[in-house]
Amino acid sequence: MRFGFPVLVFASISALILTFLISVVELSFAVKLSVFSAITTVYLILAGIIYRFQYPPALISFPEISADSPETVSENVFSPEVEEKLLALEEANTIFSSSLKPADMFRLISNRIIEIIPFSTSALYLLDKNKDKLKIAYAFGKSASTFTEVEIEPNAGIAGKAIQTHQIQTDRMLMLEKSILPPETLQYLKSAVACPLVRETDVYGVLVLYDEENRDFDAKTIKLLEAVGERIAPLFLSSITFENNLNSALIDSLTNLPNERALFMILENQVAESQRSREQRPLTVLSVDIKDFAGLNGKYGHSTGDRVLSFAAKNIKEQLRQMDFLCRVAGDEFLAVLPTSSDITTAMIIERIEKTFAANPFDIADREKIYIKLNFGFASFIRDGETAQDLLKIAGIKKREAKSAVKSSVLWFPKEYSN
Question: Are residues 396 and 377 in contact, defined by beta-carbon separation less than 8 angstroms?
Answer without folding.
Answer: yes
